[in-house]
Amino acid sequence: MINSKYLFKIYYIGGNQYYGSQRQLELLTIEQCFLNSLEKKGYISEIKNSQFEFSSRTDRFVSARGACFTCIVEKKPILMEINANMPREMGIWAYSKVPIDFSSRYNAVLRHYIYIVPTPLSYIQKTSGINLSIMETACKELEGQHDFINFSKRESEVINTIKDMNSVTLAVKDDFIIFEFKSKSFLRQQIRRMVKKILELGTGEINYNDFLNLFNNSKLISYQPADPKGLILWDIKFENNIIFTKDPKSIERRDKFFSSKKIEHRLKYNLFRVLQKDNLS
């Protein structure tokens, strides 16, 4: 029994069957799937003694490519042994041995999220029109230090809603709008709420003054966040002394799953595109 602490880099797809990342009584979650495999394969005996900790909590339907968790394990990790007992849509693909007091949550220095707007840009342009230039201006407005209380879900406990945004960018790739957000930490639903208001600004549902008023914490503004299915926890960075060992077989397993789903959804896209036509000529 070695009882060493490791930092694991993981991926998962937030499907209908999972109720977010955080453990919940009588509900299937992302954390629970990893814990089940670690227990079954003899890496942990008791969860309460394992110091199991996810670096970031994600809501239901949110996916990840480079999320992380720490855990004290009782033998040296063999990633494919753990992944063999995992659902195909999630797994571990890299690891690093860390000090026993290391925290995947508090030792993270940068979190990187991507949001893909589910509706194609060409469809938005056709139905409502969209001003990408003013959206890019809004992205720059979000950078720096602000009180993001109006860009976050209300919490029952008192928390500090002032955050430093390293960067917010917008790009168009393959007819889809893609946002990138980088910061040391985020408030709950912060990214989805920022996306919601940037899109409303772009389509003319709100004006620029309305957008700027969201930075005024004297007036609390309530609204629904953007669709969680477009959000991806892309990566989490740590200090340079944390060096991950990548497992080629686990990466191959991950990429094979991604490729299979890509082909499946491309088929569905073309199926419905053809069904919209009266003829194929």
Q: CATH H-level name of the largest domain... which superfamily?
A: Pseudouridine synthase I, catalytic domain, N-terminal subdomain
Given as residue ranges, the uncertain stretches (5+ residues, pLDDT < 50) are: none
How many structural units, i.e. domains? 2
Tally of contiguous helical segments: 7
Summed over residues and divided by their number, the pLDDT gives a mean of 95
Number of strands: 10
For the record, the CATH architecture of the largest domain stands as 2-Layer Sandwich
User: Can you summarize the main beta sheet?
Assistant: 10 strands, mixed
Alpha-beta classification: alpha+beta
Tell me the strand percentage band: 25-35%
Briefly note the CATH topology name of the largest domain: Alpha-Beta Plaits
So what's the CATH class of the largest domain?
A: Alpha Beta
Shape: globular
**Rg calc:** 21 Å
> Helicity level, as a percent range?
25-40%
What would you say this structure looks like, in words?
It is a single chain. The model has no long low-confidence stretch (mean pLDDT 95). The protein contains seven helices and ten strands. Helix 4 packs antiparallel against helix 5. Strands 1, 2, 3, 4, 5, 6, 7, 8, 9 and 10 form a ten-stranded mixed sheet that branches. By secondary structure, it is α+β, with helices and mostly antiparallel strands. Strand 7 and strand 8 form a beta hairpin. The protein has two domains: 116 residues, Pseudouridine synthase I, catalytic domain, N-terminal subdomain (Alpha-Beta Plaits, 2-Layer Sandwich); 108 residues, Alpha-Beta Plaits.
